[in-house]
Each structure stands twice: as structure tokens, then as C-alpha cells.
Design a protein that fits this description.
14 strands, globular, L,D-transpeptidase catalytic domain-like, 354 residues
Length: 354
């Protein structure tokens, strides 16, 4: 009898252990395959079909070293509310954007663009009060990231938006928002510059709206510069912008400094004209003035020409010997006639892509 009860107890114990193991395996793997785009990528990979898929979804985009595209940059001047794609000395395309609000300012600095997420998920930023109780959003029309996001820095992106009404005004939580059509156009242009080997059909497939998130890492990085200027001189026009973060300093001094940079003397601008510039700058997107419209502007006088001839070491400029057909050099000065020109610099800069 005792042996029979022990046998039954053993059988029950083995069955219980087997059932517990089965339940644990089920909880660990879940019942949804890794290809389901309606489950958000999670930090621990829970809810994925296997650990390999979980690692791929939760891993940060790769950061391989790569070359930087020369003579191309993306420029955002925060007060202007615009993003410009610049190639050489020309603005290829200009887009309206929303930068961060005064409470959540977009950081000024230099960045590198290489990683692009198409049809991205939106996951609430950790430790952000404004995102408390918000749930992840899958790719689609309700996603706050819109159609594309481009990595600038940790948790700072250029991205689309499902609310385009405030473009041009500071409205985001630090990122740079664009209309969905514009951010797709920008991403395609950057790929054509930095990843020209990607075929057009593949780029078309990546940029179509869908429910599946995709990553691309461009072959080279593109420089991005975020600045804060309330005045910009472009050609023969002066552009003035609102001081959206209250950090522009003395507006008149900024205007005069920008004009001086372009070779224009602005010290005699009448107070009434400066007041008009200041009030016009307060509009969304600022204002633009032809230099001919601003009174009392004149070219700055030419600077003193630099001395280009050889000088005696240790002697003041006035004591330099007069040029002669066969100048006699001091013993501690070496003259090399017909010195070869320096070779052109080769851009070999590499970076850690964001």
C-alpha cells in the first residue's frame, strides 16, 4: 500500500514538473511570430517568436565607420523654422519644419545622418512626463513619427508627423518634424547622394507607406548642422527671424554682425529702420528684406592689404628692406624659388554614424 501511494505521488510529481516546464516555455516564446508588425519592439524581446528575432528588433541601429559625403550638408536654423539641403554653395531644397518648443528645445550642434527608419514604430520616450501613460504606436496614419525618421542623436530625430498644422513653428519635444511628403523626399534625396548604389526600385519599395518597419544604413554619412541665428544674409537679402528660445541676444548687434560678415556697413541704420526689422522678425517664419530697402547701408571700406613679400626675421614691417633684383637673404632665412604647390587635400574623414 505504502509503495503504491509513493508510486502515485511520483507520477503526479513528474506530471506537475512537465506541465510547469511547458507553461514556462509558452510564456517565454509567446504565440505571435516575429513578423507581426502590430507588436511593438520591446527592450527585453518579450512576445517574440525566438531570441534571434528579439535581438534583431531590440538592437540599436548599427554604427559602422564610414566616409562623410563632402560638400553636402543638412542645415537647420532654429529660428527660421526651415530645413535646407545644401550642396556646395547652393540650396538644393528647403522645407518647412517644426523644431522643439521653448520647453523642449532642439539642441544646437553638429550631427551625422546615416540611419533611416521607414514606417517607424513610436515608443514613448522613457522618463518623459509628457509621454506618461502613452502606448506604443505601430506604423500607420496615427503614428507620431510619421512615415520616416532619420537618426540625429540619442532620442533626437528628423521625422514625419501626423499633425502638420504647426509646421514652421516650434512645437515638438526636441525633434525636428516635417510633413510626411517632405521627409520621404528628403530621405530619398539623401540616399541618392550617400547610397547611390541602391536601385530605384528598392528605394521605391522602402519609401512606400506600410505596416512593416524597415531600416537602411546609408553607405556614407551626411553632415547636419543645427544653428541659432536671428539674422541671416543670403545674397542681396537680409532674413530676420523670431527669437523663439529667447537666446538671440542683442537683436541690433546680431543684424549688424551678420551684415558686416557680408561686407556691409550697417552702423548708420536709423533706429526706426532697425525697429521695423525687429518687429518683422517676430512673425512666424520671420521676414526678408532686400538690402536696397534698408536705409544707410554702404559697403565696408576695403581692408588693409597684407604684406606678401619676404621680411627680415625679427625686424618690424617698416624696417623691411626694399625689394631689389637680387635680394640678399639673412642667413637664418631660407628662400625656395618656384616652390611646388601643395597637393589638394583628400577627404578621408570617417565617423561613428549615429
Amino acid at each position: 500500500m505504502l509503495r503504491s501511494r509513493a508510486g502515485k505521488f511520483g507520477i503526479l510529481l513528474v506530471a506537475s514538473v512537465a506541465l510547469s516546464a511547458a507553461l514556462l516555455r509558452r510564456n517565454a516564446t509567446g504565440t505571435v511570430s516575429g513578423g507581426n508588425a502590430f507588436l511593438p519592439p520591446s527592450a527585453d524581446g518579450a512576445g517574440r517568436a525566438d531570441s534571434a528575432t528579439a535581438a534583431a528588433d531590440s538592437a540599436q541601429p548599427a554604427k559602422p565607420k564610414r566616409q562623410i559625403v563632402p560638400d553636402v550638408e543638412v542645415v537647420v536654423n532654429i529660428p527660421s523654422g526651415r530645413l535646407q539641403l545644401v550642396q556646395g554653395d547652393s540650396v538644393v531644397k528647403s522645407y518647412p519644419v517644426s523644431v522643439g518648443s521653448a520647453r523642449y528645445p532642439t539642441p544646437v550642434g553638429d550631427y551625422l545622418l546615416a540611419t533611416v527608419i521607414w514606417n517607424p514604430w513610436w515608443n514613448p520616450p522613457p522618463e518623459s512626463g509628457w509621454a506618461r501613460n502613452r502606448k506604443p504606436e505601430p506604423p500607420g496614419p496615427n503614428n507620431p513619427m510619421g512615415r520616416v525618421k532619420l537618426h540625429m542623436d540619442e532620442l533626437i530625430y528628423i521625422h514625419g508627423t501626423n499633425s502638420e498644422g504647426r509646421l514652421g513653428a516650434p512645437a515638438s519635444h526636441g525633434c525636428i518634424r516635417m510633413s510626411n511628403a517632405d521627409v520621404v523626399d528628403l530621405a530619398r534625396r539623401l540616399h541618392q547622394i550617400a547610397a547611390p548604389s541602391m536601385e530605384g526600385a528598392e528605394l521605391d519599395r522602402m519609401s512606400r507607406p506600410g505596416r512593416e518597419q524597415r531600416h537602411t544604413v546609408m553607405a556614407r554619412s551626411i553632415r547636419m548642422r543645427v544653428t541659432y541665428n536671428v539674422a541671416e544674409l543670403r545674397g542681396d537679402r537680409l532674413h530676420v527671424f523670431p527669437d523663439v528660445y529667447g537666446k538671440g541676444g542683442d537683436f541690433a548687434a546680431r543684424v549688424r554682425g551678420e551684415l558686416a560678415r557680408g561686407g556691409v556697413d550697417s552702423l548708420q541704420i536709423p533706429p526706426l529702420a532697425m525697429s521695423r526689422l525687429r518687429s518683422s522678425a517676430g512673425a512666424r517664419g520671420g521676414a526678408s528684406f532686400a538690402l536696397a530697402e534698408i536705409p544707410e547701408l554702404r559697403p565696408l571700406p576695403p581692408s588693409e592689404p597684407r604684406e606678401t613679400g619676404p621680411r627680415v626675421l625679427g625686424a618690424p614691417a617698416a624696417a623691411a628692406p626694399e625689394a631689389s633684383a637680387t635680394p640678399e637673404a639673412p642667413r637664418d632665412t631660407l628662400f625656395i624659388p618656384n616652390a611646388p604647390a601643395e597637393p589638394a587635400a583628400i577627404d578621408t574623414t570617417t565617423d561613428e554614424a549615429p
